[in-house]
Amino acid sequence: MAIDLGCMNRPWAKHSFDQALSGIARAGFRSFGLLNNWNQDVKVTGDSDDAEADRVGARVRDAGLALRMVPCSVPIDRGHDGAVNYVRVLARHAERLGVRVLLEMGSNHPEKYDAYFAVMRDAAPAAADHGVTIALKPHGGLSTTADDCLRAIERVDHPAYRLTYDPGNLLYYAGESPVPALARLRPYVVAVCLKDETGGNGPDRAVDLVPGDGDVDFPTIIKALLDTGFDGPAIVETLGPGSVEEVDAHAARAFRYLGGLVGA
Questions:
Q1: Coil, helix or strand for 136?
Q2: Can you give the pLDDT at residue 27?
Q3: Region of residue 200 (left: phi > 0; alpha: psi -120 to 50; beta: else)
Q4: CB atoms inside a 10 Å sphere around CB 58
Q5: Closest among 144, 135, 7 to 67, alpha carbons compared
Q6: CA dist 217 to 159, 189, 196, 256, Å?
Q7: Domain 4-262, CATH 3.40.1190.20 — does that match?
Q8: What is the pLDDT of residue 158?
Q9: What pLDDT does residue 2 have?
Q10: pLDDT at res. 264
Q11: Which residues of 70-102 are buried (b: 16+ CB within 10 A; e: fewer)?
């Protein structure tokens, strides 16, 4: 059993998707997590047709990477049936692409929480039909704190609705220490976003950092994951900014640092 170390395209949001893929592969990563960056017209969503999703999968494979997670961000405003169907279609794409984790962001609108959880209670079985798990991450709103995340698990109450542990976001949104949080969240964690952070939840907080440069205690976190047999995807979400060459260098440094911790 081993941690599946990868990287997302988010750090290359000001550059092209192909530059992101090549930079990630050259850094040494072999796994990839997709985010639908605003200036990269490369997406896998519940609105994608089969051909569009398959083209994205092929581009990732051609770069020598394995696609491990795609974003969910369920559209509650479409109504219950529309939102559930969105997840159902996305899960079908994920199954065909070999993806097992839908990265879910929750909701930041309290008036929509009940509708969100109702959708998730019906979407989770649909995801399970395709061998896929919806994995909520700390992201403010209904998933601000570790306790919020645990309450979400209780409300949905289905094994295909679990958690993506994101230590940087626990600091960023809640000012919550991520190490003790992991001890409580670990039974439900199926994926990890490796994100560093500085500034807690204060006015100068930041996450555009190479892992190891901020306040997250990655050695303790990685050891805890290894000690408890975690073997899912652990994907770097953020790095330092800069030119494509600078972001590539940040990725290489992140791989050396995290690879040393996970034994890659």
A1: strand
A2: 98
A3: left
A4: 11
A5: 7
A6: 29, 18, 9, 16
A7: no
A8: 98
A9: 81
A10: 72
A11: bbbbbebeeeeeebbbbbbbbbbbbeebebbbb
The owner of tokens 């972001």 is: 247
Instruction: Give the length of the chain.
Output: 264
Question: Tokens in use for 197?
Answer: 């952070």
Provide the token pair at 144. Answer: 């601000």
pTM of the predicted structure, to 2 decimals: 0.97
Nearest to 105 by CA among 65, 67, 134, 62: 134
Tell me the two tokens of residue 1: 């059993």
* pLDDT recorded at residue 54: 97
Instruction: Report pLDDT for 261.
Output: 97
Query: Residue 1: what pLDDT?
Result: 53
Question: What is the Cα 123 distance to its own chain's centre?
Answer: 18
Provide the residue ranges of all domains of the chain, joining segments of one domain with +.
Answer: 4-262
Beta carbons within 10 angstroms of residue 202's beta carbon? 10
Contact 75, 114 (CB under 8 A): no
User: Which parts of the chain sit beneath pLDDT 50?
Assistant: none
With both helix axes pointing from N to C terminus, report the angle between 80-97 and 113-128 in degrees, rounded to the nearest 10: 40
What stretches of 124-230 adopt beta strand conformation (E)? Answer: 133-136, 161-165, 189-194
